[in-house]
Amino acid sequence: MAVTRTFSIIKPDATRRNLTGAITKMLEDAGLRVVASKRIQMTKEQAEGFYAVHAERPFFNDLVSFMISGPVVVQVLEGEDAVKANRDVMGATNPADAAEGTIRKTFAESIEANSAHGSDSDENAAIEIAYFFKPEEIVG
Ligand code: CMP
């Protein structure tokens, strides 16, 4: 299996509860390496652009409002099959469906305030990484 990269966001519900370190430790324990990381306040335009694929969904406006309700930590993660490793440790989108020991089962408050985002494919990982990071900000 190849070493690949994925994109992660530690969401406002988690930064508000001071869970950045706890979530990062779970990512690292899952074999992922943080090769870029920054804490940012997303603008409305940034959040709308990032989640543009969901623009027609009924939850879109609430999702954007939530994502700009406080700081987030955007990260590039590297490891063996990083997209899958990250999604496995995050757990299901809805914490009610997430497996024991996953980030969302452990920390998420709701399907919206679900503590973490992770790319769903290598293709989207590349797009999402480029949305927030310049190549020189990623140090493997
Ligand atoms: P994320 O992995 O960041 O990708 C899109 C986000 O939309 C998802 O996590 C959830 O936080 C949110 N989301 C998905 N489905 C719903 C829903 N039915 N209601 C509210 N938010 C949702």
TrEMBL record:
Domain Nucleoside diphosphate kinase-like: 3-140
Cofactor(s) the protein needs: Mg(2+)
Binding site for ATP: K11, F59, R87, T93, R104, N114
Top-level EC class: transferase
E.C. numbers: 2.7.4.6
SMART domains referenced in this protein's UniProt entry, alphabetically: NDK
Pfam families: NDK
GO molecular function annotation: nucleoside diphosphate kinase activity
Protein keywords: ATP-binding, Cytoplasm, Kinase, Magnesium, Metal-binding, Nucleotide metabolism, Nucleotide-binding, Phosphoprotein, Transferase
Subunit structure comment from the entry: Homotetramer.
Functional summary from the UniProt entry: Major role in the synthesis of nucleoside triphosphates other than ATP. The ATP gamma phosphate is transferred to the NDP beta phosphate via a ping-pong mechanism, using a phosphorylated active-site intermediate.
Protein known as: Nucleoside diphosphate kinase
Organism: Novosphingobium decolorationis
Origin organism lineage: Bacteria, Pseudomonadati, Pseudomonadota, Alphaproteobacteria, Sphingomonadales
